[in-house]
Design brief:
D-malate dehydrogenase (decarboxylating) (chains A, B); NAD (chains A, B); Isopropylmalate Dehydrogenase; alpha/beta; magnesium ion binding (chains A, B); binds 3-isopropylmalic acid; NAD binding (chains A, B); homodimer; 10-stranded mixed sheet; 12 strands
Chain lengths: 355, 355
Amino acid sequence: EHYSVAVIAGDGIGPEVMAEGLKALQAVERVHNWIRFDIRCLDWNCGYYARHGRMMPDNGLEILRDFDAILLGAIGAPDVPDHISVWELILPIRRRFHQYVNLRPIKLLKGLESPLRHKGQAELDFVVVRENTEGEYSNMGGRLHAGTPYELAIQNNVFTRFGVERVIRYAFSLAQSLGRKRVTAATKSNGINHSMPFWDEVFRDVSRSHPEIRTDLFHIDALAAYFVSRPEIFDVVVASNLFGDILTDLGAAVVGGLGLAPSGNINPEREYPSMFEPIHGSAPDIAGKGIANPIATIWSVSMMMDHLGHREMGQLLLDGIEEVLVEGVVRTPDIGGRATTSEMGDAIVNSIMRK
Amino acid sequence: EHYSVAVIAGDGIGPEVMAEGLKALQAVERVHNWIRFDIRCLDWNCGYYARHGRMMPDNGLEILRDFDAILLGAIGAPDVPDHISVWELILPIRRRFHQYVNLRPIKLLKGLESPLRHKGQAELDFVVVRENTEGEYSNMGGRLHAGTPYELAIQNNVFTRFGVERVIRYAFSLAQSLGRKRVTAATKSNGINHSMPFWDEVFRDVSRSHPEIRTDLFHIDALAAYFVSRPEIFDVVVASNLFGDILTDLGAAVVGGLGLAPSGNINPEREYPSMFEPIHGSAPDIAGKGIANPIATIWSVSMMMDHLGHREMGQLLLDGIEEVLVEGVVRTPDIGGRATTSEMGDAIVNSIMRK
Ligand SMILES: CC(C)[C@H](C(=O)O)[C@@H](O)C(=O)O
Ligand SMILES: CC(C)[C@H](C(=O)O)[C@@H](O)C(=O)O
């Protein structure tokens, strides 16, 4: 079986962690020798921008369209404004390919300790489903009276029934397919009085078709606090674009840090390629030092396997990661060790090959 | 010296915790017998709404206007929609009285353990300055195509130079007056591309007048994660209405919970009364049981003292709270004990009277 995978290693630590992600992918090929990944590396990043004045070719999205999946390392450099690197590469991919689900597991891996004193593997194991195409990241708005004391900026949050309903439906079917009992929605309808009450309404509508699932609507302030004080109450959390963004970085922190946190930008209908990326950024401060943790990327590769329908391979990768963490010998500095990025990747590959 | 204080005990646990706040206030009067607080209790809450069809009298704001300060317990009941209880009482007070600073200390009190394994008093001691009058809580927006598959809701976030500048200025002068070195602003200008870049610009403008202060602009996702992983880097954090709301509930969680978290809705110019309230809600689930923690309210009374210019009394109250926590005998259930709300309040009053 052949899959074509576009790889955008990106900037900063992106290429460093992606190298390990690709090693892990090759390890899978060696274990299951009937599967092949045809990799195409695309050099679309801030360096490309410096040379061409844009983040990707004009027909970049068309090029990507034909792949079975996309792997992204990290995008962003200090000398390129975010409104370019983010708005001309990551966000167009998420939107154009209707990757309306940003799937982010919050799971404390075996062998790791949570920074939360009283929480362990049993308490820290849930999934956040983040809306990924609309909401607070709308690109709509502007300024008036610039340069005067009366200057103001307006940003429109745009929530459509189409957009909200599809992501909430996904959250419910995910809970079902994972055999989990509870779907929690993040809201703020007490303070934000147009968009969030609408979000709540759609959530209640959709939940009516799932009487077997327990539902909660928590305000984002309380919900963020619960990620620290009561993470065990969550199975599947569904949140708007912004709320999901905040919750998942926070979730990453409570399970050991951004170096461990994977994500999938999923087009559930599989009409378009989905994109898998660590949720960390390009981390210019540690780029080039070879100390970035590749686990988030390798775990993202594992999520890609799941999405392509090969759950046993996804599990193989995750088992490989956990085995190395349980052994506890090879660890990058962010999780208390002295290993380099590639030592960490090699250890995981070895553990995969032993299986 | 006389001060007039309007007390809105509110709903649920509001009256329970407020009773202890008032006891603490009387204790201060007994220790410093030249000071007097003339208390006027206002029964504006969801019960008032049930009787009168509104949360406060038509001239409610006029009535409040003449007080030196306002104490609020908690507002909200399951049978009254938030858009009434919040939008017809709390938010109008915050706005009408230009309480544009919502001051929220994030400080681990002596005697308490943080849920964060590796963080103690030294790491958990900073202040969040939350914008309190505009931004994401704008009341502007609406819906189109209601009841059809094409339905959508738009919410306008409105950021004015006037509104952003005044709160950021306050954050810098607060850092100065506290002798702290660092002001951190919460942003999300990489994803939210009109309002947040504007916020960043104003932050940079204001910071230029304070070369002695170190500044950082962190995206809200990373910032929330740092509240867990690196809280020691913060001195003063300044955030928009929504971001400040989220960060302070999260901050409360990392220093032991909402039962401990106070706030001041401050009009720095003192043209209007400021309002002090615990950041927790009315908690209908535990209302009437007498087990709510009154510390957040008593600490809010302490902040009122500070604001009225009596820092030594504010300190007296805070010392009283900390002494009881260090003794560790009397504690409400949320912090691991079996004491009732009034036992906790009494213990704090006794400790104040011993000083
Ligand atoms: C009740 C609600 C609107 C309020 C807010 O978000 O401001 C509360 O959460 C708070 O923090 O004071
Ligand atoms: C780069 C940024 C716009 C992005 C986001 O907020 O979506 C990132 O934080 C993420 O979570 O993937």
